[in-house]
# Entry
Amino acid sequence: MKMSRTLIVHALIFYLIFNNCFSQTTEIDSLQNLLKTADDTTQVNLLRWLGIYSRSEDREKALEYGLESLEKSKQIGFVKGEIEALYALGVTHGMTDNYAESLDYLNKCLDLATKQKDYSNVCSVYNAMGIVHKRIGDYPASQGYYLKSIRLVDSLQLEENVSSEYVNLGILYDLMGEQDKAVESYEKALEVYKGPNRLATENTVLSNLAVMDFNNGNYQAALDKFLQRQQYAEEQNDNVSQCIGHSNIGMCHLKLQQWKSAEEHLLKSLELAEQLSLKHQIVENYNGLADLMLQQEKFKKAIYYSNKSIEILDISGGYEQKREVHQKAYEIYEAVNQLPKAVYHLKQAMTYKDSLMNETKVREIQNLQIQHDVYVKDREIEANQLQLALLNTRVEQNKKRMVYFIIILILLLFSASLLYFRFLAKKRSNALLFEKNQLISQQKDVISDMNRQLEKRMLRAQMNPHFIFNSLSSIQHLISSDDKKGALTYLSKFSKLLRQVLESSVNITLVLKEEIELLKIYVELEALRFDHSFSYSFDIDKNLDLDKYEIPMLLVQPYIENAIIHGLMPKTGDKKLTVSFKDIDNYIECIIEDNGVGITKPKKKEVKNISRGMSITGKRINALKKFCDQELVKVEDLNTDGLSGTKVTILIPKG
# Structure
């Protein structure tokens, strides 16, 4: 015979309800008196407590109080009261086996508590939903809700006591036949317990473990636990628990064939059960005593106790208990060879067994129907939520509905948001020519820029020595020509030029104004070097802001040098050099024009001299081409119609 938790606690629940009726009636009267003068939130709370205390007497009245508390909460905007009213209604429906309605209210409570971040009530709802799903036989869903409650407390480090969730999990695992997990959950319940009444939790766990041991045939282990639990019940003066405890202890002694102890505890339990009018427990004790006497072959006493249990069961009792009692009567009469009576009780046992099976099938069908009702309710909730969302889009002035609209709108537009951001990124990348993808190519652009800067510094480092060597050659020429005055003048201007170059050596680029000053000094030096054999002029566009733009240092100088050395010096007669700077859209246009011999094929020994300076400048021009797609240098031969000379046009990108 297996020991059922439902059977053990049935009498306890009945007793508590019976004895609490008078105290609850007093509480209800007190709450109703307070309700007459209460208002707002106090009235909401009083209505909810009236519903809770009315559950054991009038379930319909309890629901009425709960609904009134809910409506009052909505009227005054008391969200906390609304959450607790929904929870109370869900629990009340669960106690009346209206599981679909219970889950409906609990789901509403869960939604509102989640939005308000009321995690304490969220945990309570999860636990209640786990109990409801366990009762309708949906064990996986029940397990899921218990675990959700535990995980929520762990993840947010709440101060909630999840000991009851672990106890419920243990009971669930035992029902599912996973006893190792059940024991683990019971141990965890004790480990995480937070509260002043730890002994009560320990004894609850102890009772569950004892039942598990008994059903597994570990009668001595079950007995030890039941004895420990009995001691706690005696300390608490809990007569109902003592009554059940004596019965459990007696059954353990019976299984261990310890007849005297078994009879002693079963009789004590019977005495307490009769005092407390616990009919269910009275039947259990009579049937246990009948079994005890049968095993000792005390058949008269066995028949007496069996008849007493049948007599009480004729008034009330369930199919399972009636089947067990008639089965025991059959065994007794068969043992004393009273076959007609044995056959009668066997038939009765078989009848109740069939009835029990039918009842079980009916319950299974009811549970399936309840699960279907729960499914329908869930679908209704989803449909209502969708309808509410559609209505919210039409009522923009309502703040609460606007919140729902924004949430739904965010969900609907979530898939399009990535495309939108990609569009913005593409728009920005189109605005920035050198940046294809800002996130991916940013480092590449920085490295490329560093390479360009290094390349410019290298080319400038090559350019400066070239210019200095040419200038020193000019000074050497004047000294060798015994033109001391010219050499000194040249040296003075050269030192001024060199000083300005060195002061600007930190920068790769120069402001256009400073660059023109350098070029003027350079041309003046070259004119001095060649005894002012050529004239020169600088033509600067008045619209060109000389202080705004920067250009690569000494970029133009090699072209001027080339015009003087290879264009003007070989010519006889009037020699003229013109350098102009103009502002043209995105470029600074520099034109170097001379009336020299024009473009001629250089001699072999001049090739090296020409290529050295111009090749460096060519590389610098190529570096500038990376910022534009236009040809930057144009060289024109002016040897037409009796004229001669060369015109070099250089486009320098701004910025």
Remarks:
- The two ends are 97 Å apart (CA to CA).
- Residues 5-23, 359-366, 458-463, 603-611 have pLDDT under 50 and may be disordered.
